[in-house]
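Question: does this match?
>
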Amino acid sequence: MKLYYDPITVNCRKVAAGFGLMGVSFEKSHVDYFSGGQKAPEYLAINPNGALPALVDGDLTLWESNAILQYAADKNEAFAYYPRDPKVRADIHRWHLWEAATWFPSCYVFLVENVVKPLLKAEPDQAVTDKETPNWHRLANILDERLANRRWLCGDRVTLADIAVAAPMHLHPYQKLPLDDHPNLRRWMTEGVEQLPCWKATDVASVLGLKAN
């Protein structure tokens, strides 16, 4: 399997961390996000959406990070992290869909304003994050309630749901996400996800030269 990705991006780190969790081996092909490599004609031939990552496995070309994780789990029989039980899978799929459609867009506002713009020497717009903050708290509260009496999102051990939902907030100290208002979510992220070897191995804060305020 060949993964076209830039490990600094949310969805690429998600896949890299998920592959690490499952022990999936893959060939790496770096596509530089900040230079717009994902918009180059040769990459658009792989993923016409011009988004990262994309996976090529023989005659299969696959985009959408959660689909990539699910495919790799099945192919590598990583059922400890993607159980075959239909109810557990439905639960994982529910969080994957929610993450992509709802959670990622909200967290991304903070990522762009507080991480990406400073990296590009642009000024963050506090009004943009202020506008999104109530919605972010609403979504974070859903997770906080889910995690009130459990360590992981789906079952008693880490699954692909945890990796997917953690990814949009992977730079939370630099995104300036107000996690202190959601203690269960904070505990899950800092004491659970961030302690996973696969998560530590894919850290990008030092690569980007980020410093928390």
User: Anything to note?
Assistant: The longest strand covers residues 2-5.
